[in-house]
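Researcher: For the annotation table, I need structure tokens for RNA-dependent RNA polymerase. Please keep the output clean. Sequence:
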Amino acid sequence: MVDEYGVLEYGQVFIQYTPMYEENINDEPRSREDPKILKNCLVAITKNPCHHPGDIRTFNAIDHLKLRHLKDVVVFPKKGPRPHPNEISGSDLDGDEYAVIWHEDLVPDTPNYEAYMYDSQKDLPEHTGEITREDINKVVLDIAEQDYLGRLSNLHLAYVDLLGVHHETCKELAGVISKEVDSGKTGIHPKSEAEIKELAKGLNNQRPDFMENKNMKSYVSSYILGKLYRASCRSISGWNRLLSYYRHLKHLHISTPDDEDEQSLPIEKHKRETDIDPLLLHENYQQHIEKAKKFFFVYKQELLEILSLYHLQHETDLFCRGLKQNDIEDSAQCEFQQLIDRTRHGIYLYIIEICPSPKCSLDDYCDSCLDHYRAFSSACYYHCYQEANKTSARRTQILSFPWIFSAYLVDVKLENLRGEEKSSTNRIFGTAMSNTLQKLIDERRLKLEVNIDNGLALALLNKKNSGIRSSNCQRLYYKIDWKIIVFIEIIHNWLNRHQKILSKDIQDTENEISPKPLVSYECWNTILIKFINPTSSTINLNLNELSVGFQQKSSPLNDIYYGYISSLSDEWNNNENFTKQMFDIFHQFLDICFEHSLETKDNSFAYLSEYIILFLQQIAIQKEFKY
């Protein structure tokens, strides 16, 4: 909206937003936050469509007393040579929605590009005489038939990747798209079908890889969209394999050309069953199992009769119905609701019978009744899912039964979450790391050069002696926590031996467009030095002079090192606190990668961060590392 008070100068905006409210899954007390004002910070503002380089603009967000009653809107100044909204994709404040970004890493630090002149279009054609129904139909059909906007946007995307966003062809095309957006109102299409085809010829039937156009020749894009696309491709395979474990998440599956290959993997043969969530099990659920079996048997038989009578394929057809309903669907829904009501009433009679209080009723439960309800719903959940796992035919797998008491199941889960002292994520991560360490010990794959005369001290080699034999190099022994030693061993083995992404010789140009970019040993060493020598350390290690020592061959000291680590590994398995510490170490390591990537603007560190995240993804998939 416009600053009607005239307190904002050209280039300033006022923004007061209401933080989004989300309830915490752990049911922890959480109050709604008060609206926040962006004060004295640089913000980037844009809106769709955003094709011209001037469509995203930076402003100074300020606070002003006269504007504080305005919330969840962008207040633009009325001063200046041209309205700011018009500079942003030709906006006219008719209900437009803007994207506002103020994170300092995402706000451009370059001057605003000259905005496109969006008001330079031709005069609208005049209509003489009365507007008839035929005129209206003609306009509606013209809008429906013309698929120009999507085609022009795709051409712009391809041209930008080929020529750059500042090229005249791309800027002109951005203006054309803006006019095409308004064609429904103006009746004017800036480009004809023939002109669009001629424009497409300039791309020589080529498209960047991230557009995934199977009808065109594909080339590897060297720009940010190409890099993000290939990074996504590197994680999609693992993501889809993770989803394959959980049938209720299969709608999140991402289709790829390699889907057929993924489906042939043997990884999920033993995971066709639906896992039972232990957090949904009440401590007394076993007391109600026999009664739950009887109720479930009746519910299942009657539900299958409804499905058969009304020719429905699955129980989900009773829950998920389209807006277009008919008498048959209404009848099925009515019978299903009656079944639910009968089941709930029968269970109410069962609970009242075992309740010690004579005062309980359908509308007023005592604490004992509520606890019985929760335990019984948990028993229904357990038995229902156990039976489903024994049934191969999808149609007869009935999973809806326990969820007619969903409120009680939610109570059970929340109560179990409150009582759970250890994070399952920490346990999975810690267990995977422990198992992998044992494999490295068994296979004699520990590589770090370590001195154990007085605890564990990591060998750091002087880079100036790089031409000298390793045995003769000057060494600095740096005392370090054994858990960090173990973490480095596992990560190094995974990156170097399994992923094979560490390399001495990297061609930057080729590496940037590679499906799997390599990371230099120099980059890896820099992160390791920063990791073992945090800023809080009293000893300052020079990144440019030292490198972490890795052994190429075994030595007599290795046996002592292996024995030392093996004994500590046994201690780890008996101390659950180590799992949390190991997960914290992972986060520290990842933070260092991110921070150094931002500091140096070197993509090698960004790639390393990505591989570390894939490292965590594999744990989620297989609960261990595969070498």
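Researcher: And a one-line annotation?
Model: DSSP finds 20 helices and 14 strands in the chain.
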